[in-house]
Specification:
By secondary structure, this protein is mostly helical. It has helices at residues 3-20, 27-35, 39-63, 68-71, 77-94, 96-109, 117-133, 138-163, 177-186, 190-207, 213-244, 255-301, 308-323, 327-353, 362-382, 384-393, 397-415, 427-462. Helix 2 packs across helix 11 (213-244), helix 3 packs antiparallel against helix 11 (213-244) and helix 6 (96-109) runs antiparallel to helix 12 (255-301). It is found in: Cell membrane.
């Protein structure tokens, strides 16, 4: 095996391990459970946003030389700053980090030990804080053993699910199966995380001697493909396992309960415990990595105002508080926000892939504005249940009719847009606004230069 092939495999599997993120493993079984016989369609939608876009994000960042500032440079500095801060908050203390603790509690702690979520989360973030404040490589060593162990446990679960299925897949319990998978892929947050992970991957590639831009990009593409194949196999197997349990397990189970009960049916109580501990420890390493990454970013961004130590303490405290809302509630709150930000990330990823063919930065401006004009509406619709529950708690019943009218109007507007049924209602508005802004700028520049050329020719005639 050549050095290049070996490097591709090593870095590719490292990227696969980083993307695998134990907190993401709760989504495929639930998707399979909901889609039943049509699990293949839901898997396809999930792979687009949960695997394809993150890998394209890595490649896109490779074309940006691995610098976050280059990823948004064609918009403007202020937008870039706010966008990256927002992404860091989403994959940091607002959603991703709290979800790791909540997932650990619901899969590893509650079924086996029965302690409260508050105590479980306190211990979880105390350990997280200890490691992010203590410079050592213990967690790196643990992670090297945990990832293969987690993959082995998941592999056994999937293989057993194929050999002796839980049952026969039932009819789907939701409509628009592809769209459901597409939107569930948002919750992995991996397209957002790819911007951060890319800096690590590209640093690893350059450290191995691939510093020339062309070779760096090729290595990035190959490592991305390995991660893509690995994730596709794992997620596909888990979706199938969830589908085989769709006629056996109740419909009202939470995402984590589906994982726990599926593992217990396939491998018994021992299998449930082993899977729970593997996922719990993997979630802990993910939490430590995300906390350290977010802490470093915010302490450098606001270096005159807050230290790294204070930053990671704040992150752990906020994450501890939010983790006690539970996995499904965290996902419900994250949903509307991801509906707004994820399409923008997708558009920026695609545009940066073809940046050298785009005449001016106003094509970027228009695409982002066009996307946001629709994704904000999608976020508003996704927040319907949350807002209704809030109004009920506040007993603001008169306002509910007006809010319902607003939701219905927005839904009807979105339904008129092409590709709404497969999750891309923002596609044509993004394309239209991009062309309008980009070519509008070109036409404007031509009209500005035309009078000056006429003046010059007139002066020449006078002479």
């Amino acid at each position: 095996m050549s050095k290049k092939t070996n490097d591709i495999i090593v870095i590719g599997f490292a990227l696969f391990a980083m993307f695998l993120g134990a907190g993401n493993l709760i989504f495929p079984p639930t998707l399979g459970h909901l889609s039943g016989k049509d699990w293949g369609f839901s898997l396809l939608g999930f792979l687009v946003t949960g695997v394809g876009m993150p890998v394209l994000g890595i490649i896109s960042m490779g074309k940006c030389d691995g610098h976050l500032s280059n990823f948004t440079k064609n918009i403007n500095q202020l937008f870039g700053t706010f966008f990256i801060i927002f992404v860091m908050l989403i994959i940091g203390p607002l959603f991703a980090i709290p979800r790791t603790a909540a997932t650990t509690y619901e899969i590893a702690i509650r079924p086996n030990f029965g302690i409260s979520s508050v105590l479980s989360s306190f211990i979880f973030f105390a350990i997280t804080l200890f490691f992010v404040l203590t410079p050592n490589n213990v967690i790196d060593r643990v992670g090297k053993f945990l990832t293969p162990a987690l993959i082995a446990v998941l592999g056994l679960l999937v293989i057993k699910g194929f050999i002796t299925p839980i049952g026969r897949p039932s009819d789907p319990s939701v409509d628009k199966i592809f769209l459901r998978g597409f939107k569930e892929g948002y919750q992995t947050m991996d397209a957002l995380g790819s911007m951060i992970l890319a800096t690590i991957v590209i640093s690893s590639i350059t450290a191995k001697g691939y510093t020339e831009k062309k070779s760096l990009l090729k290595m990035t593409i190959w490592t991305g493909l390995i991660a893509c194949i690995g994730l596709g196999l794992v997620y596909g197997g888990l979706v199938y396992v969830g589908a085989t349990g769709s006629a056996v397990l109740p419909d009202n189970l939470s995402r984590t309960e589906i994982v726990v009960q599926s593992s217990e049916i396939l491998w018994g109580r021992g299998g449930r415990i082993v899977l729970g501990l593997a996922i719990g420890l993997a979630c802990l390493t993910t939490s430590i990595g995300l906390t350290a990454t977010a802490g470093e970013y915010f302490s450098k961004r606001f270096k005159d105002d807050i230290s790294y130590r204070a930053t990671v303490i704040i992150i752990c405290v906020v994450s501890f508080f939010l983790s006690n809302f539970g996995v499904d509630n965290i996902i419900s709150i994250a949903g509307p926000i991801l509906e707004v930000i994820y399409p923008v990330a997708i558009v920026l990823i695609v545009l940066n892939l073809f940046a050298e063919f785009i005449p001016n930065k106003y094509f970027f401006h228009g695409a982002v504005i066009g996307t946001l004009s629709i994704s904000i509406l999608q976020g508003w619709v996704a927040a319907q249940e949350l807002i209704n529950n809030l109004l009920i708690k506040l007993e603001a019943f008169p306002a509910m009719d007006q809010v319902a009218l607003s939701f219905n109007t927005t839904i009807n507007v979105l339904k008129t847009l092409p590709f709404e049924g497969i999750g891309f209602p923002w596609l044509l508005p993004a394309l239209g606004a991009s062309l309008l802004f980009g070519f509008g700028y070109i036409i404007m520049k031509k009209t500005e230069t035309a009078p000056s050329m006429k003046e010059e020719s007139g002066e020449n005639k006078d002479e």
